[in-house]
Design a protein that fits this description.
Blueprint: H1 7-13, E1 21-23, E2 26-29, H2 35-50
Antiparallel strand pairs: 1-2
Protein name: Thioredoxin domain
Length: about 50
């Protein structure tokens, strides 16, 4: 989501500053994560949604 284009939605999910990463409408990172942490979090989301 481009925060400038979707400001209301960004505020709704809790984005107060950039960079921020949301997955499935939930704010997950409020800063850039390491590649390893991002991969782990994405895998957890995939595992959770397939169960």
């Amino acid at each position: 989501v481009n925060v400038l284009e979707e400001l209301d939605y960004a505020v709704q999910i809790g984005v107060l500053a950039t960079p921020a990463i949301a997955i499935d409408g939930e704010l997950v990172f409020t800063a850039l994560p390491s590649e390893k942490r991002l991969r782990q979090t994405l895998q957890q989301c995939i595992d959770h949604s397939s169960s």
